[in-house]
Amino acid sequence: MFKKFINATIYKHDYASEILVEDGKFSSFGNNFGEADEVIDLEGALVLPPYVDAHLHLDYYFTGQDPQIKNESGTLFEAIDLWNDYKKGTTKEEMKSRMRQAVNDVAGYGTQYIRAQTDCTDPNLTGIKAAIEVRDELKDNITIQVVAFPQNGMYSFEEKGQTGRDLVEAALQLGADCVGGIPHNEWSPEDGTKAVKEIVRLAIKYNKLIDVHCDETDDVEARYLEILNAEAMKQGYGQSTTASHTCSFGSTDDAYAFRMMGLFHQSGLNFVSCPTENLYLQGRQDGYPKRRGLTRVKEFVDNNINVAFGQDSIVDLWYPAGSGNLMNILDNGLHATQLMREEDFPRNFDLITYNGAKLMQIEGVYGLNEGKPANFIVLDAPNVFEAQRRRVDCLASVRNGDYLFKKEKTTIHD
């Protein structure tokens, strides 16, 4: 069966205004294809590959609404302590219910791919089991990668005779897709370094991807990013490794950053920045000037180092807001990182599409290319500049050529 989508503005296909889909896959991009079994008029709207949320904690979703627990300091570390107590009272079914709702929320904005950071510092692995089941149950409509994330540390956590490191390995054996870590939350630099080395070793042993919460701190002396990059580079594993947050790298001196940029090029390391959450969490001990708490996104873009954006949290103990709308994340990120030069607007959507797909290593099935699954979204704008300027809504999400949802166009007056 042939479907033809006409009158479209297609991201990075300036020559084409029509999309031909056959049996759920992209058949061709061009113009005036002729007859089809079904013709769908997109009325000049912008077509993008689906949004990719490269960093989202599904298991934390809406835990911030509990009136019994409040993050009074607004800091990362108080949130971790509060979550450590909260999670002991959760069940797999309760966790799955919140995860499903989180997925429904973000999917309603056009996201079809999620890298789900999932706490595994729980002897019962409740969150991991819940996330794997949700991943498998919803796979037809959304692609989820589950990260075995030791929120309380690989070596600073031990319960019932199991360390965080033991639980990471157990989560991988259950079917988690990525090895996570948080070396800056270990009790000493020695343990942080040991954790990074073990993360890389486990990833290679189980043939998994790596995604580390790395240097999510204002400490300009934090150097776990350098250690992670070195270990990945030694093993030829850089392209399979992602450093998330790397807030301190945004505060370090330029001479050090210059050296590291060259090493990132050699390793092929990927990065994720979470603009709204790190703007909110970081710089808490600063007076003025107050640091933004973001990594060097603009410099990564300019140096062709892969970097993507993520929502991170939705109404949890770390972040009291959030909706899962990646257009909002992009908008905040572009302002905070000053990616609004003339050359930026045509490529900015890569930060929430292609760049995330690259670090998730799903490029073989992702993107607006012939032969790939016909997965795309439709935005209420005639071009990329207007879409970013007006922060437009997602009108439709299409999976394998069929609508997941479709909304009516709106008229916006400035």
TrEMBL record:
Domain Amidohydrolase as annotated: residue spans: 90-401
Pfam families, per the entry: Amidohydro_3 (PF07969)
Name the record gives this protein: Amidohydrolase family protein
Organism of origin is Staphylococcus equorum
Keywords of this entry: Hydrolase, Metal-binding
InterPro entries (alphabetical): Amidohydro_3 (IPR013108), Metal-dep_hydrolase_composite (IPR011059), Metal_Hydrolase (IPR032466), Metallo-hydrolase_Enzymes (IPR052349)
Tell me which domain of life the UniProt entry assigns to the organism this sequence originates from: Bacteria
MF-aspect GO terms: deaminase activity; hydrolase activity, acting on carbon-nitrogen (but not peptide) bonds, in cyclic amidines; metal ion binding
Organism placement in taxonomy: Bacteria, Bacillati, Bacillota, Bacilli, Bacillales
